[in-house]
Amino acid sequence: MKKRALWTLLVVLTIGAMAITACGTDTSPAPEEPAAVEPGTEDDGGEAEPMDEAAGLTGTVTLWHAWKENEIVSLTEVIAAFTAMYPDVTIDVLYTPFDDLRGKFETAAATGGGPSVLIGAADWGPGLYDADLIADITGMISDETLAAINPAAMGAVEYAGAMVGLPQTIKGVVMFRNTAILPEAPTTYEEMVAMHNEVTEGDVVGVDLEYGFFFSSAHLDGVCGGELMTPEGDPTFNTAEGECWLSLFNTWEEDFGVVENYNDNDVNLFKSGNVGIIIDGSWNTSALAEAIGPENLAIDAWPTVGDGALSGYVQTENIYLGANAEGDDLAASIAFIEYFLSVEAQTILANPEAAGHLPAISGVEITDPHQAQLVAAFEGGTAFPVIPEMNAYWDPMNNALLQVVQEDADPATVLQEAFDLVTAKVAEIRGE
Amino acid sequence: MAVAKLTKETPKTPPSSGPSLLKRLRSSVTAWLYILPAGAIMLLISFAPQAYQIWMSFTDFRIGNLRFNFLDPTTYEKYAPDFVGLENYVKVLLSQLALENYDFGRLFAFNVTWTVANIIFHVGLGVAIAMALNSKFLIGRRFYRAIFIIPWALPGYITALTWHNMYDDRFGAINQLIAIMNDTFGTTFATDTRWIEATGSPIGGIFSFLPLAFYAVLLANIWLGWPFMTVVATGALQSIPGELYEAARMDGASGWQQFVNVTIPLIRPAMVPAIMLGTIWTFNQFNVIYFITEGKPFGRTEILITQAFKLVFEQRLYGVAAAFSIVVFFILLGLTLLQNFATRATEAYDVA
């Protein structure tokens, strides 16, 4: 009986082993012999060089991103154009939701995997570089490409003496207006309040502003003349200017009745044509234009408040080279990153009916009125701090905002609590 | 009155009379071979990461140490984390973490309250509904059994996100339903309640540490949790011989006495493991808390596991998060042992 059981087990194990072996075997058809490439003739001269280079480039570019549907249309077009130039390069693309992308990348890259190219937020760069998860691309990109990149945008990829990526678009927080509700742009805050009161009726709201920390932090400088942090990342907001900033949103609530904190109510209402003015990210321009009609969408310069003006963060979205890329994959990935910053690719990405990205390079003609308005609005923006310490600010600062606006807490007390917590978090980030 | 006597099973053979260890090992070779594949996989995917986590909890493991690899000595010098002994545990237990409103005692008290409140409702409702479904006189029992499984069958995070939207103060279904009620019945209930963000507590006294969001998320998790208990209780109820109730009735037992003396003792062996599982699931009910309240207001509905998650995904303090998880493990171990002891769950019973 025992013997029979043993034999049964051995048979099962053998069948299992065979099945596993079968799974592990590469059952895909053997790759065909590469087509013979006609060598360039001697008299091809300079024109033959790109063909030779293209024919020589092989490998796989593995690209991870968190782009939205309209952006994926442009991305697909860019990839198609790239593979037309480099037919022997394979591109593997993986979409991951934005909230999961960084964690997924860290886990994969730390174990020797992950993508060779990552498109992600500018503030990821320093942390990922410190952890050796992305590569320093100094010396890998041609001078011609680097010279075309907006010098201000380059600041977002220079860290600790390294070039941790390339800025592939400029984006930021801006003020959107539905011209069907509010035909004229407010130039001052007082005008905005008056317009709101004039048009608010029934389901239509004149102004519905967002005060989540990311969307409102720049007003600290713009309206109150304060500073969030030192260039090194130490908090400096615990001042009278900081209190002025926190109190600003109580004023908003009194003036407009409703304010939003990290929810999509304002955006959804705007898309349904029920709000005149909202504050949101420039990356939603195409979606908003599609919802209310491009002719009804305007992006305004920030209105003035007293001696200052409202403001929004301006930042870049970067393209990074994964630290694990090597050999042919590395060469192909660098070529892809460089192509991403070419006039051709940036023009595709700027298509207002698809990604609608604001180019990070010069030489791309901006014909879309919304993009021209974005450029103008960004002039009144505030540079987003690209340092690891920024991570210490998100929750404490937003909680401070919520306590003041929703709980009517004392701004000075709340600010002190936030300051203490941010200081502790900064020390934690630095490992002090 | 005793309608059924429960006696503890005695072991059939004394443990000392068995063969020697070597003989027993030899005789169990086949059994070992059978469990070998599963055991090897368990070792690889379960025990090895746990051992790694325990080690990590004694280190200052951060994002910069992610490339450290035990199997690759070339990574030791550059990426190995510093050994910090019990420092991470001290930080966790003495509330020394740089997190919003972090207080381990409050977090633990909230987590236990959350678990106990849920289990009471899950079991109470689950057993009550199972008894109703077990009634011979109920028409459409199969239909009810099918639809009551819906909350259990839906993916947890989908349910959680739906409840999250329902609690929206401006566009959520709950406030809109209240508005319809007000219009229909002339009531004047508030229609702009901030179910998740409000910091006030609807009940004072010892429950004043529980914000409105607690009750909101409790309601959602009750909806999610009772079907499991109903399924378990239904199975147990159907295995109770009808003769026992008949005998009890002949002895003059009332409905309540039948419930206390027949039903409860006989469904207990099935319910106790279910309650233990439910306790562990609820204690670590990440989806519901993370997607419905996100710890709002101001971290007052965080549970231990969501806090640990934030340590990793927001702070990237892997070492501290590992220590946090070990602490959660020991808390759960303690709760399970306590529950075992209190309910005598591992003892077997015969109906005499």
CATH fold name of the largest domain in chain A, please?
A: D-Maltodextrin-Binding Protein, domain 2
Q: Any idea how many domains of chain B?
A: 1
Instruction: Find the CATH superfamily of the largest domain in chain A.
Output: Periplasmic binding protein-like II
Report the end-to-end length of chain A measured between terminal Cα atoms: 66 Å
* Beta strand count of chain B: 2
CATH top level of chain B?
Mainly Alpha
CATH architecture term of the largest domain in chain A: 3-Layer(aba) Sandwich
Average pLDDT level of chain B: 88
| Radius of gyration of chain B, CA atoms, in whole angstroms | 25 Å
- Write the H/E string of chain B, N to C: EHHHHHHHHHHHHHHHE
Calculate Rg of chain A over CA atoms: 26 Å
The tally of strands of chain A reads 15
Return the CATH class of the largest domain in chain A.
Alpha Beta
State the share of residues found in helices of chain B, binned by percent.
55-70%
Poorly predicted parts of chain B: 1-7
Number of helices of chain B: 15
Question: In terms of structural class, how would the helical and strand content of chain B be classed?
Answer: mainly alpha
In whole angstroms, the N-to-C terminal distance of chain B is: 15 Å
CATH topology of chain B: MetI-like fold
Number of helices of chain A: 18
